[in-house]
Each structure stands twice: as structure tokens, then as C-alpha cells.
Amino acid sequence: MAGTSKSEGRTGLLNGLAAYGMWGLVPLFWPLLKPAGATEILAHRMVWSLAFVAVALLVVRRWAWAGELLRQPRRLGLVVIAAAVITVNWGVYIWAVNSGHVVEASLGYFINPLVTIAMGVLILKERLRPVQWAAVGVGFSAVLVLTIGYGRPPWISLTLAFSFATYGLVKKKVNLGGVESLAAETAIQFLPALGYLLWLSAHGGLTFATEGTGHAVLLASTGLVTALPLVCFGAAAIRVPLSTLGLLQYLAPVFQFLLGVLYFGEAMPFERWAGFALVWLALVLLTGDALRTSRRAARTLGPAITESRAMAPGATDTTGATGAAGATGAVREAESVASGVSGSAAVSGGAAVSGVPAASGVPGAPAPEAGVSPLAKP
Questions:
Q1: What kind and span of H or E run contains 337?
Q2: What is the Cα–Cα distance from 51 to 215, expressed in whole angstroms?
Q3: Among 177, 255, 310, 375, which is least packed by CB within 10 angstroms?
Q4: Phi, psi at residue 348, to the nearest 5°?
Q5: What gap in Å lies between CA 257 and CA 321, rounded to an integer?
Q6: pLDDT in tens, 330-374
Q7: 0.85 exceeded by pTM
Q8: SS3 (DSSP) at 297
Q9: Chain-centre distance of CA 337, in angstroms?
């Protein structure tokens, strides 16, 4: 049993590394799609992502969620909002990379946890600990320094961070799994995207059919580039602690930053280094505080988790299967709190709630460029 657990953990860690590694290296992919413009690439990404996830769902025969979603107008409306926000995120990111702003784009995902926490305070009325306030304050100072360094607000970074944080907040309310969520959102995006491609073709601006087979294959592969890391992320999410995912998330912007500086040769004057240093300091404060809180919660809740585990298999006295499910849910919730995720982002009923991690928890495990918010179930 212990060997199996170690093997599962190793598999989860490898999948997590693969997912965040692919998201970190994705700036190498978008320039290959030139001379297609950012809007055409975005439209292809929407169309081909739907095709890819539709095939995946056909293979696993997982369609019941679609009928349930269609019968819930409020939830469907939230999916529409999520689709709109992730469209902005994807579009700005593709444009930024292909316009020589890879470093500024990476900054967006560095500051995303800080924006997420700020939104938790402003919208969800969550309370911060002193270290978290300090981290947010340092992050705000970093934005001011970078504004001076760039000669303008770092609008690419801020747009990416706020759009993804908003996306996570909406997805928290929707509570759909990763692949299902991507399918629902790209289904909403599909007709506008296809309409744009047809319009572009009618006006002679579509590169899909005019730049050769290789170019067409690359544009079609945007669906694979979107969905494959998501599959790896899903495999990791059920096998490794949320605190581990919270640390792995920084691999993607680190890789993007290094690519921007070392491969694409983007300028990094002193003011930008100073701004990034402040962002990294804020993240060190935030992560250190989250890990300390996580360990403290684990020590406090350890006996409760053990007791809940003992109850789960035989909790069928007067409530039957419902009692077992409740006890199992208690185990999941206690374990999620022990790993640093508070009740508002805890595991409930066997499905990890996607969305904004609570201010008291690990600073998220967002899947940038995936179209899936933190902690989405596989």
C-alpha cells in the first residue's frame, strides 16, 4: 500500500511538472504561427480546443454534466462570463508573446496570487493575516516601481492577472471539472470564433489555407497545446497535495521570464529588475506564510482526520450510504484544510471546487494558458 502511494505521488508530481513545464514553454509555440495575427490564432485556439475536448469526452463517455448545465440558467450564465474573461486572457497573452512582451506577460502570472488574494478580500470579504497584508503591500509597491520602469502601467501583466483571477472567481461558483469546463467555454466561444475565421477568409486575410500544410497543422494543434497540459494538470491534482501544486504553479512564469530574458532577449533595465524583485519578495512572504499555516492546521486537524477516516467505511447506521458519503466528505474537507485550503475552496462531495483560493490557504494552483482555474477536478 505504501509503495502504491509513493508511486501515485511520483506520477502526480511528474504530471504536475509536465503541465506547468508546458505552460512555461508555450511562448516558444505562438511565434511559430506567424504570419497569422493574434486574433486569428485566438479564434483557431477556440475552435480546435472544442474539437479536441469533444473527442476526449466522447472517448470517456462523460456527457451527463452538459444536460445538467443546460437546465441551470444561472450556472450557464456564469460559464458565459468565464468564457468571455478567458478569451481576454488568451488573446492578450498571445498578442503579448508575439509582440515581444514575454517578460511582462510572465509578470502577470507572478502577481496573479496577489490579485487573487486582493479579490478575496474585496469581493468575498476574507480576512488577511499580517504577513499577507505585507505581501499585498509589497506587490502594490512593485507595480508602482514597474510603472516607473516601463513609463506606463504594466497593463499586459495587470490584464492577465485580473482576468485570470476573475476567471477563477467565476469558476469557483460554476464548479465544473477541468475538461468539462473547457468544453463548455469553448462551445460558447466556437460560433463567434468560427464566424470570425469565415469572415477573415472571405476578405482574403485567413492564413490557414494560404501558408501551406505545415502552417495549417500548427494552427490546428492549438487545441492540443491547450488541452494536453490540462490533462496532465488533472492527473496531478488528484495525486499530490494542494500545497505542492501551489508551489509548482511558479514554474510556468519562471520559465516564461527566463525565455523572455535569455531566449527572446528582452531588455531588463534596473527599474524592471527592482520591480520583479519586489514581486518575488511578496511571493516568498505569501508562500512562507501559507506553508506555516498549512503545517499548523495539519497538526491541529490530524486527530480529526484520523477519526473521520475511521468513521467513513462503516458510517451507515441510520443514514445508510448518505452517512458514509458524509463521513468521506468530512475526511476530504479536513484534509483540504490541513493542506492549506480553507472552506471556501475545499474539496466537497468528491469534486474539487475550482476557483479562487481563500486568503487563508495556499496561494492557488492556477493553470495559466489552460483555460482551467485553480483546483479544478480532472
A1: helix 321-338
A2: 18
A3: 310
A4: -140, 130
A5: 50
A6: 334 333 433 333 333 332 222 333 333 443 344 444 555 544 444
A7: no
A8: helix
A9: 20
- Backbone angles phi and psi of 377, in degrees to 5: -70, 150
Query: CA end-to-end span of the chain, whole Å?
Result: 23
| Residue 27, preceding peptide bond in cis (omega within 30° of 0) | no
Distance CA 259, CA 274 (A): 19
Looking at residue 69, its amino acid is L
The torsion defined by the Cα of 253, 257, 258 and 262, in degrees rounded to 10, comes to 160
Cell numbers standing for residue 117: 488574494
Cα–Cα dist 127/147, whole Å:
28
From residue 343, alpha-carbon distances to 87, 114, 239, 260, 273 in Å are 29, 19, 20, 38, 37
* Cell representation of residue 306: 484520523
Three-class DSSP labels, 64-107: HHHHHHHCCHHHHHHHHHHHHHHHHHHHHHHHHHHCCCHHHHHH
